[in-house]
Amino acid sequence: MWCRKKTAEELRQEVKERLERNGWKDRCEVVVIDPELDVWVWTRSPHVADVLKISQTELDHLTASGKPDHPKEVLEEILRKKRIPRSSALYEELATRVSLRGCTDPAFRLLCETLQRWFPAENISKDLRRSICHEH
Predict the structure, then answer these.
(1) Does residue 16 form part of some domain?
(2) Which among 2, 14, 67, 135 is most buried, taking Cβ atoms within 10 Å?
(3) Cα 75 from Cα 78, distance rounded (Å)
(4) Distances in Å between the alpha carbon of 113 and those of 26, 60, 100, 110, 121?
(5) Nearest by Cα to 102 from 37, 48, 53
(6) What Å distances lie between residue 18 and 22, 24, 107, CA to CA?
(7) By residue range, what is the domain housing residue 47?
(8) Into how many domains does the chain fold?
(9) Per residue in 15-68, pLDDT tens?
């Protein structure tokens, strides 16, 4: 029997409906990261170019349509060519230096919006808000 693979949105809706039927109505959200979390790296921030040791022109070319078609593979190729080890330290540096506001991926935007709704800015200290939003 042939089965069609569900889209990220179909899967998200199905899981959300199940949660709501089981007592979580108006108290849940489902985020399906598709295809991979590496998509948040691909913003036109000069910090991305700096961390990945590529020119801003190269980064602009890679992000011309929002993100590369295969973000994880492109990132791995750059890291290999530049001899940068793929490590938690690399992602920590990116997360520290690059604002998440530039990410246009719908699932990632939904995650950010949900976290902002659940944890409103007025409940977060000014210092923490600055570090998360990269406000200066």
Answers:
(1) no
(2) 67
(3) 5
(4) 15, 26, 11, 5, 12
(5) 48
(6) 6, 9, 19
(7) 31-133
(8) 1
(9) 999 999 999 999 999 998 876 666 778 888 899 999 999 999 999 998 888 778
Distance CA 67, CA 60 (A): 10
Q: How far apart are CA 38 and CA 87, in angstroms?
A: 13
**Separation CA 90–CA 69 (nearest Å):** 22
116: region left, alpha or beta (phi > 0 left; psi from -120 to 50 alpha)? alpha
- The amino acid at 84: I
CA dist., res. 20 & res. 27, Å (int): 8
pLDDT at 87 exceeding the cut of 70: yes
Q: Does residue 129 sit within a domain?
A: yes
> What's the predicted TM-score (pTM) here?
0.60
